[in-house]
Amino acid sequence: MKVKVGIIGATGMVGQNFVGLLSNHPWFEIAYLAASPTSAGKRYHEAVAGRWHMLQDMPGTVRDMVVADANIVQNAIGKCSVLFSAVEMDKNAITSLESEYASRGLAVVSTNSAHRYTEDVPVLIPEINAEHIAIIKDQRRKRGWDKGLIAVKPNCSIQSYMLPLWALIRAGYKVDKVIVTTLQALSGAGYPGPSAIDMTDNVIPYIGGEEEKSEIEPTKIFGRIQDGKFVYDDTIQISAHCNRVPVSDGHIACVSVKFASRRPATKEIIDIWRSFKAAPQELELPSAPQQPLIYRDEIDRPQPRKDRDAENGMAVTVGRLRECKVLDYRFVGLHHNTLRGAAGGAVLIAELLKAKGLI
Amino acid sequence: MKVKVGIIGATGMVGQNFVGLLSNHPWFEIAYLAASPTSAGKRYHEAVAGRWHMLQDMPGTVRDMVVADANIVQNAIGKCSVLFSAVEMDKNAITSLESEYASRGLAVVSTNSAHRYTEDVPVLIPEINAEHIAIIKDQRRKRGWDKGLIAVKPNCSIQSYMLPLWALIRAGYKVDKVIVTTLQALSGAGYPGPSAIDMTDNVIPYIGGEEEKSEIEPTKIFGRIQDGKFVYDDTIQISAHCNRVPVSDGHIACVSVKFASRRPATKEIIDIWRSFKAAPQELELPSAPQQPLIYRDEIDRPQPRKDRDAENGMAVTVGRLRECKVLDYRFVGLHHNTLRGAAGGAVLIAELLKAKGLI
Amino acid sequence: MKVKVGIIGATGMVGQNFVGLLSNHPWFEIAYLAASPTSAGKRYHEAVAGRWHMLQDMPGTVRDMVVADANIVQNAIGKCSVLFSAVEMDKNAITSLESEYASRGLAVVSTNSAHRYTEDVPVLIPEINAEHIAIIKDQRRKRGWDKGLIAVKPNCSIQSYMLPLWALIRAGYKVDKVIVTTLQALSGAGYPGPSAIDMTDNVIPYIGGEEEKSEIEPTKIFGRIQDGKFVYDDTIQISAHCNRVPVSDGHIACVSVKFASRRPATKEIIDIWRSFKAAPQELELPSAPQQPLIYRDEIDRPQPRKDRDAENGMAVTVGRLRECKVLDYRFVGLHHNTLRGAAGGAVLIAELLKAKGLI
Amino acid sequence: MKVKVGIIGATGMVGQNFVGLLSNHPWFEIAYLAASPTSAGKRYHEAVAGRWHMLQDMPGTVRDMVVADANIVQNAIGKCSVLFSAVEMDKNAITSLESEYASRGLAVVSTNSAHRYTEDVPVLIPEINAEHIAIIKDQRRKRGWDKGLIAVKPNCSIQSYMLPLWALIRAGYKVDKVIVTTLQALSGAGYPGPSAIDMTDNVIPYIGGEEEKSEIEPTKIFGRIQDGKFVYDDTIQISAHCNRVPVSDGHIACVSVKFASRRPATKEIIDIWRSFKAAPQELELPSAPQQPLIYRDEIDRPQPRKDRDAENGMAVTVGRLRECKVLDYRFVGLHHNTLRGAAGGAVLIAELLKAKGLI
């Protein structure tokens, strides 16, 4: 028996990604689709007519599902026990809507940034901080929720440096300082995102709000739980410069890193990366990449076109490890921003929650 | 009376840039074109038939000039007194060919990297180190040259951070550490450069040899002359990560900088940049931008499409000055790589040499 | 004394093009800028803050002009005698707004399609049907206008085949059938236009409404005036297939043409094109290209990057004339869609009207 | 027992495509790889080091195979019975090399154009002219070959209009005239193909030799065998205009077609396309698309990004069927040029030959 799941914000770009990832999932089954009032009452294929952005055709199983109004929480009750949230509203509206769904017993897994700084909501990259799901006990207790919960995935800009850094931290090499410059893909901006005119023969060295998220969210993910709240790790300093480049999918991070005290040798770093496995691999979660970190020896990799789809878009590919003349080391990381960095990352969280009995 | 100039490597991409910049120059007049033996003997328009890469049509004045063999130095003697070198050969061949031209009395101004580490050859960005032309006296004396000389321009990847940094250094703020990530345009690779297949929906986080040049050449430019040789400035540490992006012209640099001791306030930095003028402006060199550093207040500038042509492609545009969480400040610089960064930078050097009586 | 002109829709992309073209015009002087109520009351640079799309910076002369509300016709009265219209509204609203301005004595020159099928409004490409301005006498008489008038430019997709075809028609070679496939630039869709995601590694073989305009408008331009109305030329059949390609500016047309009876020889066609001059050249209109039709011998021209800016973007570049195995001949035409095809074409119309004493 | 196959030209782009398609094939097994003398003697992964262009990693099964010299025919004897040819040499060299391999008993299936006009060599699109393999009997008899044979696939520009046209012809609607404008992808030019500089913000309205191939090859494919030779179908006239666009894979064809006498209704055409099946489907060839012609109702399809991979890149996607004002109908076709149009098309031919007992 598969777990019945719902998607709110199902007609948007991230929602469509969820539909693609969940339409054939071994553990989950799409049982509920909701979106804005404009879409409500229409069949899914009508609601997204002319704006289905996935490269694959819409799965037949969802074509004729009638889309509900995502604002009416009651609609979802009894239809599903897990709710993937990709609604596009203002922050406060999302915060309260997601909380209301959770209060009614649904496990809400969100790609939105609204709850990322909520003190009892975990921001999860399952390979890094799976144990942060322990906060859900506090979350439920304080809020008086029974089965409901909220867990969120971080911003799509950070996975390509967070996983490589974490592997080294876990191996005992504390990271002190990070300067990262990202070259981010268009799909990270949602649809329609940047105008083609602006991105032809051009790059834009700015993405609103992205640098702040890229600097702060890691310190929560690397943080610890204390008294039912997250304490951020303020021992790591991160400086991020975010650029938009004319690439469809796949964020690149050019990283310089300084270790707190001792530093590993180059060969050791590569070994650590190549042998890195964590909770998702141990639990054999369906969406978990067999090899979460792929290190490539070719001098000009990773590249978006060639590496974004590694392990169904769930691996982070690393390359070009070399010394840095200012900090200790430099490397390049890459991940698929709408898979590992968004919908895929959220599905992996839901799988973790289920494997751990929280769903 | 204009000074007669020649171009060797005249049929290549940089050579064509020289032709474009010099065909209507107030001080210089193209009197000699040379290239490989295959082109020798052909009229210029025949020699570049099917591979004229400039957006403007070939100037009528050079169309019918007969191209000489660049390997036969004698050809140039009596035809011109300044020789712009854009030959594409192996390093040793260029080193000796350029030296031979100089030994025969020609002032050689080169875009090649061959002589950049020669101890008595200045690597010039005229706004920064115009006084390095003093070495030419030593160069001539040691080598027994009378009127000949060699001066070269640096790699095209560094102008967008070197000028902003220099303006601050000159104002008394010593720079200690720099981490720079570049997003470099296709034309920096010459023609044909990267394959369109590789650059479609892609960026490549590697450019062969570029990071080394971007880290070392600045220390020569910031260095000093001692006993007829250059002493590199080893007090500044630079770490460069170079990426190729699908942009025709215009290199971007995302820069983090740390000052040695005291640091200027944000407003002061912008004032320093906006009021920066140096030798080329004081000497009113024809190719000198009126404002070598343009600071833009818009949050998403500079951008290649919109800023590369500022001041006929000779200005460096800067933007996004803000604090860095790891070093002191961050900013974005941009310059036109084939104009300021290559042929235009070389023409500016020749103008400086002439204004200073060395030509 | 320059003629005072106004621009309505001044903040949009075409409006910005008008600002660029008119800010330094020998005959016209921008005296009035109007846009939607949201922009009204702001200075021009405030009204377009963050959405100035021209590659050149905003001209200083318009920066501080206060933008009026384009819906309030009275605002313009006394400020200007010519009004360039680039408003973006629904068709009926534009039709009546432009008529009202004209009824109040302004010469309205519009880039909009609203009045293109109005029976007494000329659709002008001045090199082709300058004599169609004769209808303005009827227009004024019937509508009771004194000095006011409306003249419009055609859709931006047709100039690259209309000019070459017209040159041949005028030389006595009646054209019977035309099959044209266009490869149209992004800027033809206005701003923001297509999403960068959709245009990365892609072309879209459809542009809404474009094929119909490309087939019908030519027959009005080739038509004649009879009883104060236009009679369309139904002796020419045009089939258009319109594609959107990832190019910033510059529409390409791949054309196959059949002549009604006798056909010219290849050499004659090229001669006709190269020697083609018409009213704008004879009247020496300021925006008129010296050579309206440029035929290039290179086998791979015209290309958008290399040819769109010919004659300040006002020439049509033609190439690849060869026999067609189905109709008579094939060729490729190219023009700059926002200059010759939009704002530049409208300015040329205004210049024609002034030269002919109608302004 | 799988049939052992070899690939000559295995290190080039088409050769790599063959490796990808054949490394996991149900009927064929790669047993032999050959390339130029420079590659000979190296392991395959060494021979293509730094120039593996497939998005997927090199299959493990071929990594360590030693590459032979393709010029030494003897090398292949005993190693394989089918030889896929993707060598890049001059036409005469290919013609004789492929003939020699065939004379030694190998079934040569080639993507090269060298043998396309050889009178007894079939140019095959298996859905259209599978019965042309009957010529192989004549080929063997005349040339004295026992088991050897040569069969070739046509140019990659024609599949997207040939399949839709053929479906209609087979249904009894003789086609008289075709005007086709193609928008062809970069990979059609091989590697490196066009320079990224030339293809940035640009399209090129010319591809050398492509229009001739696109006009003539169809008439052989639609032709018939008579006295052991092909008689071309001269009752169909085709005019092709070929453009290069900045798309990685996927050729588009904008087609206008005129029927000889009676013409089908729109609905009938779509029905014919949607129900079209031919020999590869009936024989259930492994690479045969289940549905060779996919008609999409969306107004803006087919598009390269969204449709090229349909049926593993072996289907032709059609859309936008509508009347033509000059001929009868217009439509847009699209196919994956390196799969259906090159290596995939050749593998399908080999499968047909095997199913028919010729291999």
Write structural notes for this entry.
Four copies of one chain form a homotetramer. The first copy, chain A, is an alpha/beta fold and 359 residues long. The first copy, chain A, has helices spanning 13-22, 44-47, 60-63, 91-103, 126-129, 135-143, 159-170, 196-199, 210-221, 266-275, 279-282, 304-307, 339-355, and strands at 3-8, 28-35, 68-69, 82-85, 107-110, 149-152, 175-184, 224-226, 229-231, 237-244, 251-259, 293-295, 316-323, 329-335. Chain A has a six-stranded parallel beta sheet, with helices on both faces. In chain A, strands 10-7-11-14-13-12 form a six-stranded mixed beta sheet. In chain A, helix 1 (13-22) crosses helix 13 (339-355). Chain A has two domains: 3-155 and 343-355, 3-Layer(aba) Sandwich (Rossmann fold); 159-336, Dihydrodipicolinate Reductase, domain 2. Chains in contact: A-B, A-C, A-D, B-C, B-D, C-D.
Provide tags for this entry.
homotetramer; 359 residues; alpha/beta; Rossmann fold; Dihydrodipicolinate Reductase, domain 2; 2 domains; six-stranded parallel β-sheet; six-stranded mixed β-sheet; 13 helices; 14 strands; 30% helix; globular
At a glance:
The structure is a homotetramer of 359-residue chains. Chain A has 13 helices and 14 strands. Chain A is an alpha/beta fold and 359 residues long.
Q: Which residue ranges of chain A are poorly predicted, with pLDDT under 50 across at least 5 consecutive positions?
A: none
Shape of chain A: globular
**Tally of helical segments of chain A:** 13
User: Considering DSSP H and I runs of 4 or more, what fraction of the residues of chain A is helical?
Assistant: 25-40%
CATH architecture of the largest domain in chain A: 2-Layer Sandwich
The figure for the number of domains of chain A is 2
Report the CATH superfamily of the largest domain in chain A: Dihydrodipicolinate Reductase, domain 2
Largest sheet of chain A: 6 strands, parallel
* Overall mean pLDDT of chain A: 97
Number of E strands of chain A:
14
CATH third-level topology of the largest domain in chain A: Dihydrodipicolinate Reductase, domain 2
